[in-house]
Structure formats: structure tokens, C-alpha cells
Amino acid sequence: MFNKQRLHKLTLVTQFYNILVRILSGSFFIIVLAFFQEPDLSNILIFLGIFLALSLLLFVVETVKYFRTYYWIEGNRLVLQTGLFIQKEKDIQISRIQSIDTSEDIVHRLLKVTKITVNTPGQGLILDALSVSQYKALSDYLNQLKISLNKRTEDEFPEDKLAVDDTSEVIRSEAEDAPAETTLLQLSVGEIVKMTILNGAIFRGFFIFLIGFNFLTDLPLDDLFTEVGSVFISASIIILLASIFIGMILIYTIGIIASIIKNYGYKVTLSGEHLNIKKGLLETQSQTVPLKNVQTLEEKQNWLMKFFGYTTFSLGLTSDSSQKNNENKTEIKEDGQVVLFPIVKSEKLNPLVKQCFPEFVLSPVENVVPVRSIRRFIQFPVLFWLIIAATISIMFWVYAWIAGLILILFYGFYGYRSYKLTGYHLCENEITVQTPTLFALTKTYVPKNRILNLQVKQNLFLKRANLMKTNFSTAHGIASKEFKLKYIEEKDAFKIFEWFRNGGIN
């Protein structure tokens, strides 16, 4: 039995650090406002007094909670007991544990302690903080016990097998050797910078800048001011545009630095039936992804990435609960999507994926949208924006039709991309779906046994054109995710339907 015990005593230090961060972040605007005013000693003393009193109060609360917090293992349950006035117990079934993740901010690393998150299909448990030896012993014991429970050989683990304290030795697996760890991807600082640049943000920034430049330079300022005044105004506009440009570069540089801090040492490893993602400079995070939870594989590529031969690869996962706990800094989004390879050479992707998911075929798609479908991608958005632009031009601003024309051109381009790039491919037990957006292309690989439902739709107008819509959904996150193939040939829609209903390819 894993005996009842407290968290590491340095938890008090990490909690005090968290208190200071919360108070200072909450007082940020007050501090900024005070900085621009003349210093008043009485106000400063009042602020410091409130700050110290609040910090002391919260620290006392956290100290009481620390001495009333215990965790232990009882049978098939990992139990956490905590509470300020009323102690509440929260437990998880060990046999349902999916992963044990760690997170260490700068204080944790200095103190050589770690915060662990025990993930299950439900909410999971967070233990902050344990020493490295405590974490290792608990992790090994949980993994051993999970294997034993799954094999229905609980007698192999007597209840008094392990007692853990700060100096306890690491327990090694007696049932079987740990699987070898294979490094799949490791990003250098240069590759992180490249990832930040190629994700499209710099393109969007320059696009917005050019729109603003054209808008300002087209304003009829000469009709509003004298010639002398116009000279100063023109100079002011040039200075303003230069400031905007420099500010945009500065903000983007800060974004690159933030990306380096967040993704420093980015490393993906494969060990048995789990993938592990480790990254972070100031805060090191380790996230484990069970392969059995993977529902879909997704490859996404924007224009810049395609030009330089790179792509992004992510996984669609399933979960029984949303990530509502602010302390759980998992990278899994609400829709169940987690980025595995944020940037990787396109030609290296398939061999890497095959190491993790050998059952996936990863077939290229066949483009299936006919020419007569182009107008159906754009007709309703174009009609909508045409009416909006015309209304604004007549009633408010005469130049609004220019913005409407730009939007219409964008939707026309989107319709052409949808015609050229939408496609699918069927294998015996897998479907590949490719769908474009305005600036990116997404290719998704979906096993047949992961599809929850599949529909084919056809209204009167589509029937006359021998076209159909197909959509299907898979479990993603706490809900589901829908995939659509719009305005494809009737025969293709029925082919997909028969593949899903009967199995196999005719």
C-alpha cells in the first residue's frame, strides 16, 4: 500500500510564489497608473500594507491547506484529500490512468520539485509539488499497479510493498522491462524561429499594414486643409506609418522570443504505447499522449510552409472531460487537437508517422470537385457581402464597395481553391480527406472504426446538377468533430457511403 502522506514541504514556497504572481498581476493596472502620477508616500505605504496583508492572509490559507492535504493509494484508487475547513476526497481509478504529466516553472526547477498531473478519461488529479524521488516512486508504482490490475494479477503487489518519503529509492518494474525510448523530433532554436515565421503571422501582419497604408494615403486630405498644413500632415502620416511598421516588427520580434521561451528544447519521443512531448525554457512541461486515444491524424500546410517544404502535424484525441482547471497546462485544446510536430520537412513526415502509427496508410487524395461546383462555394457569401457593401455605400460611406469587391475576390479565389484541392481517398479501413481554406490546406486521415456516423445530403438543386454533400464525425475532445466534402459528384458520395456501410472498397 502506498501510505498516506503529505506533499513535499517546499510546496509552501511554490504556493507563496503563486500568491505573489496572482496579486501582482491583479494589481498591474494600479501599479501602472501610480507610476505616471507624482509619488505620494502615504499612498505607497497604504498599497504596501494592503499587499503585505493580503499576501500574509493567502499564505496562511495555503499553509493550512498544505497541512490538511494528503494523498495515498487504496486498492485501485489514487486518493487526494484536501480542504481548508472541510476536507474533501477526490479519487481516480488507477486502471483508467492514461498518462502522468509533469510541469516545472522556474521556482520548481530551482527547488528541484515538480508538479504532476495524473490524467484519466475523467478529470484527473494534480499534485503540486513532489520531490523528484517522490514523483519517480509514485509514477513507477502506479504504472506497475496499472499493469497488474489490467492483467488481473493483483496478488503480485502486496499492500506493504512500498512506502515513500523524500529519500526512498526508485522502484523498478518487476513485471517487465520499460520499453525503449525513441526520439522522433527535436527542434533547435533556429527551427523554432523558422516555425514562428512560417506560421503565417508575418504575412497577415504585412497584409494588414498594406491595407492601412493604402487607406491612409487615399484619404482626401487636400480638400480639408491648406497646402501648408497638408505638408505637415503628410509628414505626420509618414512618421505614423513608420512607427506602425517599426511597432509591428517589434511586436513580431517579441512574439519570436516568446515562442522560443515556450518551445525551447521541444522534443517528441515514443516509448511503447505513449508519445511524450517535452518543452519549455522558464517552465518545463512534459505531456504524455496515449496512442490508443488518437482518433485522427491531421497535416496542415499554409502557403509559406508549402513553398519552403514544411508542414505541421497534429493528433485528434478523445477525452471525457473538458480542461477547465487553470492549473492543468496541457496543450490539448477543447476540441481534442494537440500539435505533435509544429514544423517538420514534408518528405520526413510519413516515415516519422509510420513509427508511431504503422496501421495508418496515409494515402494521397484524388481531387473530386467538378468545375460546375465552383459557383456553389461562393454564391451565397458573395451575395451577402454584395448586399452589405451596397447598403453601406449608399447610406454611410461611398467607398465601402471597395471593401466589398475585395471580399468578393477573396471568395472567388476560395471557390477556385476548393475546386482544385478538395478531395478524398478510400482504403480498406481508412479515409483521407483534404479540404482547403483561403491560406492553408488540411489533410486528415481517419480510420473507419473511429467514424461515429456518416451522412450524404442532396437538395433539389444539387440533384439537378448530380452533386451531393458528404459529412461524417469522429470523437474529438469532449464532443465530436465533423468533416465535410461539399459539392462532390453523386457517384463519389455514394461510394463513400457504401464503403462505410458495407466495409471495404467495391
Your description of this structure?
The protein is of the alpha+beta class. Among the domains are: 11-176, no CATH class; 371-419, no CATH class. The protein is 43% helix and 27% strand. It has 14 helices and 20 strands. Strands 6-5-4-10-9-8-7 form a seven-stranded antiparallel β-sheet. A hairpin with a 3-residue loop joins strand 15 and strand 16 (430-436). Helix 1 (11-26) packs antiparallel against helix 3 (41-67), helix 6 (189-198) packs across helix 8 and helix 7 (201-217) packs antiparallel against helix 8. It starts with 10 loop residues before the first helix and ends with a helix. Mean pLDDT is 79; it is low at 153-176, 213-229 and 322-326.
Keywords:
14 helices; 506 residues; alpha+beta; 27% strand; seven-stranded antiparallel beta sheet; 20 strands; single chain
Distance separating the two termini: 57 Å
* Strand residues, percent: 25-35%
Largest β-sheet summary: 7 strands, antiparallel
Question: In one word, what is the shape?
Answer: globular
Average pLDDT figure: 79
| Rg over alpha carbons | 29 Å
Classify the secondary structure makeup into a structural class: alpha+beta
Widest sheet: strand order?
Answer: 6-5-4-10-9-8-7
Total beta strands: 20
Treating each run of at least 4 consecutive H or I residues as one helix, how many helices?
14
- Share in helix: 40-55%
Low-confidence stretches: 153-176, 213-229, 322-326
